Amino acid sequence: MSNCRYQVNETYRYSQAFLDFAENLELMFDREGEMLFSGSRNTIKRFTIGQDGDKMDVVVKRFNMHNVFQKIAYSFFVPSKAKRAFENGMELLRIGCGTPSPIAYAETRSGVWLQRCYYVTAYTDDESVRQALEVDFNRPLAKTFALFVARLHEHAVVHHDLNFSNVLYRQEGGENIISVIDINRMTIKRSGRLALEECKDDFVRWTDRKDLFEYVMREYAKARGLDEDAFFATAAQMKRTHDKAWRRRKKFTAALKRIIQTK
Predict the structure, then answer these.
(1) Count of other CB atoms within 10 angstroms of residue 98
(2) pTM for the complete prediction?
(3) pLDDT per residue over 144-188, tens digit each?
(4) Which domains does the chain have, with CATH numbers?
(5) How is 32-101 classified by DSSP, letter by letter?
């Protein structure tokens, strides 16, 4: 028989509706809510919590486990993806970096075995920066993005997947406000300052547009007090190495698929 463990952000514990929602997520998730995304790795739905004048839209991400190794790891050795996302979200807000407000996480277990886990955040209609940055090259927004990444790294935080699907923005009072999602892989180095090599994932994954990449990297270097030319040369080499390895993997995967399809 499954049992549910959950934690609700203290900001939302005033409302029994939020506590009930977290406790009953396992029962409600498949039957209710608006589907936003469904994939092999996770499922995302939108729900409305509360009644009448006290309603709030939330997003729930259910993480799926692919194999027995993940099941063993998340049951006994490492925090679940939902718990990591919740704690990372709280840390982002603490250091002044935007992310949809963490509301709760929930885990269902059968005995000692983790079955499913859920991460609940406030709903946001902020949009991806992809069009504004990669297509339009909005320089003020690009600078805001560079400052956001610099702030992450100054606090020894690495997101690890800053593709533009995971970077959102809105305009507020004439300013661009950046936030990030898909934060369960985010890492925090508790022991001190990050070396540039440790930040590599946040430099290489978000664009193939060379002028945008150089602009953001140079603004990042200014924000952190680094030598612009030296840092840009290092970041550019990191990206070339990453892109070469990525193309090699894609080529191998495509060849493997062709072999399988011909059999």
Answers:
(1) 18
(2) 0.90
(3) 999 999 999 999 999 999 999 999 999 999 999 999 999 999 999
(4) 2-122 (3.30.200), 127-247 (1.10.510)
(5) SSEEEEE-SSEEEEEEEES-TTS-EEEEEEEEPP-SHHHHHIIIIIS--HHHHHHHHHHHHHHTT-B-PP
